[in-house]
Prior knowledge:
With about 90 residues, the protein is an alpha/beta fold. The chain is about 35% helix and about 15% strand. It has three helices and three strands. The chain has helices at about 1-5, 30-40, 60-70, and strands at about 10-15, 45-50, 75-80. It has a three-stranded parallel beta sheet, covered by helices on one side.
Amino acid sequence: MHAAKQATIPVRGYLSCVLGCPYEGKNFCSKSRGVIKKLWDIGCHEISLGDTIGVGVVSETYALIDAVRRSVPVEKIAVHFREHMGKRLPTL
């Protein structure tokens, strides 16, 4: 990040498994919020949230984004979802 800042290169911070982890389960979401805030605080210009294993549901997705936008402007949040088992998420 230091070198990117010096060169004025924007960096997008990525966090995968934000709605569930194959190793830590659903409780991983609460840990994600702290990591997201750290990425923003160190200077990432945008934060990408990924439900890379496709376990999220609509209510959890809205709750996560609501929590994240308290520390990251909503226009600086990107999302990446997988659709598994017929659980489609709406456009946010």
